[in-house]
Design a protein that fits this description.
Rossmann fold; alpha/beta; 15 strands
Length: 296
């Protein structure tokens, strides 16, 4: 995002509403401090969790500016996940969702990030939060079958698998495994998936995981990027419906689950939820979390 877009994001974020001065002060503090320091800085986060960040890391600095960068979906994870649950983070980037699930909630799970440089940042955040024994994190891609894939390596949060016939000078080859294989019978309650259009392939290798009764939520970004691979994202909604999932979004402050009636969100993530009535009770009874001086 450019500077103007960042400022609009900051001032319009629900956790910053009514307090634009404080929000902009955090922005200025980070911009100046990170450049003067010229190194990683440790930021305190939700419920005693922490993360490392450096200038230019758009995938995690939004949490400095606004508490929860992806407010609806991160708020949903905090309210829907419990310490006894397991989670999966596919396309973990530097680990925002993994930190929330593993450190802020105390759940165990798996995190997968294919780009080696980004994976090293994920590993740093796992170690910072002492999650090594709780989160199995792997430098691989998740897909429809085992093998290897070419990936971009220099696009920050939008690195992605190259489609057949695509070529890019600064690419790399990464190992691919299926979700069913790497979980080896594990039973997650929640899966977050951010794979820049590669969702269809990931789901093709996750049929056993999707069928598990423990799985009640999948957080998935469907923004049209699937066209890169000739994937029709409407088929994803049909596939998920076949496993009993319906589409929703969430308002964390009101703790209100909103039915999208089979639709998806063009921007941000769509929540695929099984048994919404049961989940509404989980959301209602979840503990409060204080973020930027506000409770959700």
């Amino acid at each position: 995002m450019g500077s103007i877009q960042v400022l609009k994001f900051i001032t319009g974020h629900p956790l910053n509403r009514g307090r634009p001065g404080r929000a902009l002060a955090r922005y200025v503090r980070w911009q100046l401090g990170s450049r003067i320091a010229g190194r990683d800085l440790i930021e305190a986060w939700v419920n005693g969790s922490r993360f490392l960040a450096r200038a230019g890391e758009t995938g995690i600095t939004g949490n400095i500016y606004a508490g929860l960068q992806e407010f609806a979906d991160m708020g949903y994870l905090l309210h829907a996940l419990r310490p006894e649950d397991a989670f999966v983070d596919v396309g973990a980037n530097v680990g925002s969702y993994t930190i929330l699930a593993g450190a802020a909630i105390g759940a165990r799970g798996w995190a997968f990030e294919p780009v080696p440089a980004t994976f090293r940042r994920l590993d740093d955040n796992v170690r910072l939060n002492r999650l090594d024994g709780r989160v199995r994190h792997m430098n691989i891609a998740i897909g429809a079958a085992g093998g290897s894939l070419a990936f971009t390596r220099d696009l920050d949060t939008v690195n992605h698998a190259l489609a057949d016939g695509d070529s890019r000078e600064n690419s790399l080859t990464v190992e691919v495994r299926t979700l069913d294989e790497v979980l080896a019978g594990g039973s997650p309650a929640l899966v977050k998936m951010d794979v820049e259009g590669f969702e269809t392939a990931v789901l093709q290798g996750a049929s056993r995981t999707l069928a598990r009764e423990s799985l009640h939520s999948v957080i998935m970004e469907l923004n049209g990027s699937g066209r890169r691979y000739d994937h029709d994202e409407r088929r994803i909604v049909e596939l998920m419906a076949g496993h009993g999932f319906s589409t929703h979004t969430y308002e964390p402050i009101a703790r209100r689950l909103i039915d999208l009636d089979g639709g998806t969100l063009a921007e941000g993530n769509t929540l695929f939820i099984r048994d919404p009535q049961r989940i509404r009770e989980k959301l209602r009874t979840a503990p409060q979390f204080e973020i930027l001086g506000r409770a959700i």
